Amino acid sequence: MRVDKWLWTARLFKTRALAAEAVRGGRVHVNGVAVKPGREVGPGDELELTLGPVRRTVIARGVADEFGVLVAGDVGPTGELIEPLGTLSPQDAQAAFAEQIEALAGAGADLILAETMSDLAEAEAVVRAAREVAPDVEVVITLSFDTNRHTMMGVSPTEAVQTLSEMGVTGVGANCGRGIDDMQAVMEEMVAHRPEGLLLLAQSNAGLPVIHGDEFHYDTSPAEMADYARRMRALGVELVGGCCGSTPAHMAAMAAVLNA
User: How far apart, in whole angstroms, are the C-alpha atoms of residue 189 and residue 198?
Assistant: First the structure.
């Protein structure tokens, strides 16, 4: 299976109806979280950490088959620093990712999407885990370039595409960040330096959160996100989606532009 079609992402749907509504605008991806071995969790948390993403993957799989689209099983960062900067060993990180990836692949994910990475050592642990437990499933890695268009660990877009391509991933990109203008700059750099054959993925936040009364709202409209999607396609970015603050209205507006 080659991931070579436009990708639009939908998050954390807990029912088939929500999944069907999301997938009408594009492709499907299911969120998860990686947990450091030995980390304390409350009663029932371990079961939910395993079954929650699997349950959502099964829901997504059924809807995706109906609509003929892809399911991406999503893993996030551990929240720990890898040795020598932190206390988490590469082996323990790989083990944590492997447990989740095996469950997601077994539940029907077409590919593994690791998001919001900041450390290439942790991204490598994801790749190694996928090769260990799901060698036939393709891997896409996105990082968050939210610190002067670098990750918090100092990784540049150029370094990301070059290093992760050498690891054999299918695609590399950016998610979260500081909004569509920063995403434009990051993806321009990735396009300029990506090796041949590497797919690129952009998943911008819908701007930044602002306070309205007692609630937070993101400050980028669906129309502005649609324009961002159009610009990403013009750059040559193959996979386009949204991250924090992206509502069904944002995703529908983006999908309409990309499907036109």
Answer: 14
The Cα 110–Cα 139 span in angstroms is: 10
The three-class DSSP label of residue 222 is: helix
Three-state DSSP at 209 gives strand
Q: Counting every residue, how long is the chain?
A: 260
Torsional sign, CA 228, 230, 233, 234: negative
Q: What confidence tens digit (pLDDT) does each residue in 183-194 have?
A: 999 999 999 999
Beta-strand pair 215-218/239-242: unpaired
Domain residue ranges in the chain: 16-195
| DSSP state at residue 168 | T
d(CA 31, CA 12): 6
- Three-class SS state of 8: coil
- 16-195 placed in CATH 3.50.50.60: no
Is the CA virtual torsion 107, 109, 113, 116 positive or negative? Answer: negative
In the block, residue with structure tokens 């029907």? 108
pLDDT tens-digit series, residues 97-116:
998 899 889 888 888 999 99
Strands (E), 31-166: 71-75, 111-117, 138-143
